[in-house]
Structure formats: C-alpha cells, structure tokens
UniProtKB/TrEMBL annotation:
Major localization class: endoplasmic reticulum
Compartments, as annotated in UniProt: Endoplasmic reticulum membrane
Membrane topology: Multi-pass membrane protein
GO cellular component, one term: endoplasmic reticulum membrane
Protein name (record): Uncharacterized protein
Keywords: Endoplasmic reticulum, Membrane, Transmembrane, Transmembrane helix
InterPro entries: ATPase_Vma12
Residue intervals passing through the bilayer: 128-147, 159-184
Amino acid sequence: MKLTLTKDMQASVELALKEANFSEKHKEEAEMIASACDESVPITVELIQYVSKQLNQSFHELLKGTAIYIEPKEIKPKNPEFEAYMAKLRAEQQERDYKRMVSSVITSEDQKFNLGIKPDELKEAKSHIATIFNILFSMIAVYTAVFKASKTIMDDLGLQVLMGLGGAIMIGTVEGILYAKYAYVATLEKKSKSKRIATL
C-alpha cells in the first residue's frame, strides 16, 4: 500500500540513508524519496516500517499527517477524429437553430411562390378564403334545400327560385355578420398583443 509523503517521512528517510547498513531492497525507493522536490511522490508502508526500525522511531509517529495515496488519473489525449465529428455536430445544431430562428423571415423563394406575403399573413389569408368558401357552400346547401321543399308547397317555378335565393341570402348574411364580428375581435386582440410586446 502507498501513502502520501510528509516532510517528517522525507527527513527520516534521508537520515536512514546515511546509515551504512541500509537495505539494498529499499535503497532505490529511499533515494527517490530523499531527492523528491515536493510531497506528490508516494511512499510505501514497507519503507516507512523499515525506516522506523532503522532509526528506532515510532511507526505511528511517522504516519502522522499522511493519507492513502490515490494515483492521479491519466489524462487521455483527445481523439482528433472524434473532436472533428463533435465540431461538425455542433455546427449542424447551430445551423438548425439559426434556421428555426429565421423561419418567419421571407426568403426570395418564398416571395416567388407567396407573392411576398409573410408566412403568418399567408396563413391568415388562407383561413379567410376557407371561411368564405364555407359560407358559399352553406348558401348553396340552403338554396337547394329551400328550393326542394318549396316544390311540395307551390308549383310556380319562379316563386320556388325566389324562396331558395331568399333562404341562401339570409343564411349568407347571418354567417357573414358572425364572421365579420369574429374577424373584428381577432384583429383587436392581435393589435393589443403587438402593443404589449412593443411596450416591453
């Protein structure tokens, strides 16, 4: 077992080395300990026991201030291929983050196909168009239903057409008013949200 070197241990080893009958078995380690410039060099328990006997010192006194020596971990050299691969991954991640950040900005390709309309505005325009088509579909459906129902009430084709048109116009007006109210409220919310962001 190896222990951390203390100044007292080093001094005792130096003193013991001066003895003529110093053991050859421990001499190499003792000389290394004696010539150590700092206390980072480990010392074996066997050498401490030998030195304490050689100098008639207390073994336990020599152990004061020491601890079990833990060899520092060897720093492995970095693999250049692995480092290059990690750098490539980091660059790709930064590129993805950048693209996500500027996704709302219109590119020249977007302007070609979207007539220069921003993605958010294009989405809103699509929503409006879809709603208009839904209203037209509702008007056609109501016209057809009223026209068919009026056939059972009257035989006059002109009146049947007028009743169908009246029903279609009525449902179109109601849905148009409801949608206009919804669009107005949504616009107000959007404006108030943009004002809050501007004041932050």
